[in-house]
Write a structure and sequence with these properties.
Strand content: under 5%
Structural class: mainly alpha
Distance between the termini: 54 Å
Shape: flat
Mean pLDDT: 88
Number of helices: 9
Largest sheet: none
Oligomer: single chain
Helix content: over 70%
Number of strands: 0
Low-confidence stretches: 197-202
Order of helices and strands: HHHHHHHHH
Number of domains: 2
């Protein structure tokens, strides 16, 4: 469980990123009582509010950075949506890679996958190693700051996770058909990219 101040910073950063107004105006417009202090904190919420204020200002600074960025042709609302996704998922895995992604905004909208990665994934799929194929593509997007495809591909990874969890709960649960759908999704991702590579080489 996160310390109240840390949780406040995380929440404030996301809300600050998604708002163009100063924190004072935000509080006046929304009221402090609308800030949802997690139920598991027994204190009145002072530490959370302090963290929220700090986080909100950080979010505003990041928003300004995105507004001034010229390295990517993405619209501001797209950049904010992608970065919000990253900030939300980081809270779950407790890994802060925000700065490294902010240093590489120009790659956020790139969907191209190298041919060697495509071929490696195809081999894994042919061997029915679906989990490994999903992990490989997810890692490629993450390690190379492809934030927009990472956000879109996350749903495929999440579907596979849910299938595994259902199987653990119920050994009789049939997963073959659902795994085939995941496999088809993987081929959609890599075949689309392979076609782009082929067209570019013509």
């Amino acid at each position: 469980m996160l310390h109240p101040t840390s949780k406040g910073i995380i929440d404030g950063r996301i809300i600050g990123l998604n708002n163009s107004i100063h924190i004072t105006s935000y509080i006046l417009n929304n009221g402090r009582e609308n800030l949802k202090v997690p139920d598991y904190y027994s204190s009145p919420g002072v530490e959370y509010y302090i963290g929220f204020g700090t986080g909100y200002e950080l979010g505003q600074k990041i928003r300004k950075l995105l507004e001034q960025d010229t390295s990517s042709k993405m619209l501001l609302n797209e950049k904010i949506k992608c970065l919000t996704f990253l900030l939300e998922k980081q809270e779950i895995c407790r890994e802060d890679v925000t700065q490294s992604f902010l240093d590489n905004i120009k790659y956020w909208d790139e969907f191209d996958i190298p041919l060697n990665i495509i071929n490696e994934i195809k081999i894994l799929l042919e061997e029915n190693k679906i989990q490994r194929s999903v992990d490989k593509l997810f890692s490629y997007f993450k390690d190379n700051f492809r934030l927009k495809p990472l956000m879109q591909f996350y749903e495929v990874r999440n579907q596979l996770k849910k299938i595994r969890e259902q199987k653990k709960k119920n050994k009789e649960y049939l997963i073959s058909e659902r795994l085939e759908k995941i496999k088809a999704e993987m081929y959609y991702w890599i075949d689309g990219n392979k076609q782009k590579i082929t067209n570019n080489n013509l």
